[in-house]
Amino acid sequence: MSNVTSAIQVKVLFFGRLKEVAGGAEESVDLPPGSRIEELFATFVARLPELARYRSSLVASRNQEFAPWSTPLHPGDEIAFLPPVSGG
Fold first, then answer.
1. Global pTM?
2. Measured between alpha carbons, how far is 57 from 65 in angstroms, rounded to an integer?
């Protein structure tokens, strides 16, 4: 018997300008098991193409620790996408 509902759910947080582009600061997303941060971001770019222009300067975090984009996701993870901080 295969379990069809094997998607993992993660919480995604957007900061700075990304929050405006995404239309909110927080969203829960279901992904296939084995998904990585890069693929999570790609699901948002597919829906909101404007996000793609920020990719090269973004930093990602997993459970409040900076993480490489190749980091695998686990159920219940909290992923944040952080734009560069502008000084002033």
1. 0.88
2. 17
